[in-house]
Design a protein that fits this description.
The protein is an alpha/beta fold and 151 residues long. The chain contains five helices and five strands. The longest helix is centred in the C-terminal third of the chain and has 15 residues.
């Protein structure tokens, strides 16, 4: 994982803003096509990506491989929780402060990566640690993910 896709304490205020601004960072960094942010929004409407854990919520937005140039994982922490719809529902809302955005080039790798991430983030101590980092500490998140074989 590259530290160029880790953004801490962002002041994004809505799901749409998260998907647009974070998605565009993948485009600018060369990981995704210009269609990536719009494809994220469309997919989120059909297949929501919010996950509620015991005392926190995360969202794992992603889209189809045709919008991806090369595989990448991005992490953003938010100053204020943003509403995402709970995965596998259309009416349950979660308030996420941690966003893990995926750009997966190989379709078969997507499910495996989602499983690894969900397993990792079931540990609330890891989520609390990530949420505690301030701008300038992006490399700590990178090392944390490496140590858990996420990248």
């Amino acid at each position: 994982m590259a530290s160029d896709l880790i953004f801490l304490n962002q002041n994004w205020r809505s799901q749409d803003e998260v998907l647009e601004k974070f998605g565009n960072k993948f485009v600018v960094a060369g990981y995704a096509l210009d269609s990536f942010p719009g494809a994220l929004k469309q997919r989120e409407k059909i297949f929501p990506t919010g996950l509620q854990f015991s005392d926190f919520a995360i969202a794992i937005p992603h889209t189809d491989p045709e919008h991806v140039k090369k595989t990448a994982i991005g992490i953003a922490t938010l100053e204020h929780p943003v509403e995402f719809t709970q995965m596998a529902t259309f009416n349950q809302v979660v308030k996420a402060k941690l966003i893990i955005m995926l750009a997966i080039k190989e379709a078969h790798s997507q499910v495996e990566m989602l499983q690894k991430l969900i397993a990792l983030f079931q540990d609330s101590n890891i989520v609390k640690e990530i949420l505690s980092y301030a701008p300038g500490e992006e490399e700590k998140i990178n090392q944390l993910l490496i140590s858990h074989n996420i990248v």
